[in-house]
Amino acid sequence: MKSVWIAVRVSLLFMIVCGLIYPLATTGVAQVLFPKQANGSLIETEGVVRGSELLAQGFESPKLFQPRASAANYDPTASSGSNTAVASSDYAAAMAEKVEAWKKENPKLTDIPAELVTISGSGFDPDLSPEGTKAQVPRISRATGLAETTLNDLVDRLTKTRQLGIFGEPRVNVTELNRELLKQVKL
């Protein structure tokens, strides 16, 4: 019976430490050291929350850069992949349709980066490779009247490098890029 009470007390102690003290301490430290990230890296315009830097948003205008496609339709309450097998005829047909749509919107584009037609695993990838982003520059240049060199310079300026020089790949946050583009262009 004594060992049962010891087990109960140790269990309660660990529930309090691991379930209450530790989460409160890490949340407190995060709020002090990284308040923006701890609160979701929210994007605010004139005091109104417009989204998060961590989640892709769908942009319909041909004047804006398009992120990766989302199986969840960019709805943050419905994160999901497509679960369509790569070897299926449905997948092949969907990819062919997307490639044709990209070619129609971007006639100068001869080599379409795969990330522009495939769906993000989570449905919310905010980043594209610099190549995937720059593939859209001719279309946006035609739609906005901005020079391609200006748009390429904007992409280059907002390209993030590998973390610590070795982790990940160079990437461009499409939401951030479009926010900067909207400062130069009226929709």
Automatic annotation (TrEMBL):
Q: Where is the protein localized?
A: Cell membrane
Q: Does the keyword Nucleotide-binding apply?
A: yes
Which keywords describe this protein according to UniProt?
ATP-binding, Cell membrane, Ion transport, Membrane, Nucleotide-binding, Potassium, Potassium transport, Transmembrane, Transmembrane helix, Transport
Q: Does the keyword Nuclease apply?
A: no
- Pfam families attached here? KdpC
Q: How does it sit in the membrane?
A: Single-pass membrane protein
Location, primary (coarse class): membrane
Q: Enumerate the InterPro entries for this protein.
A: KdpC
**What superkingdom does the record give?**
Bacteria
Described by its record, this protein's role is as follows: Part of the high-affinity ATP-driven potassium transport (or Kdp) system, which catalyzes the hydrolysis of ATP coupled with the electrogenic transport of potassium into the cytoplasm. This subunit acts as a catalytic chaperone that increases the ATP-binding affinity of the ATP-hydrolyzing subunit KdpB by the formation of a transient KdpB/KdpC/ATP ternary complex.
Q: Which family does it belong to?
A: Belongs to the KdpC family.
Q: Which NCBIfam families match?
A: kdpC (TIGR00681), PRK00315.1 (NF001454)
Q: How does it assemble?
A: The system is composed of three essential subunits: KdpA, KdpB and KdpC.
State the name under which the record lists this protein.
Potassium-transporting ATPase KdpC subunit
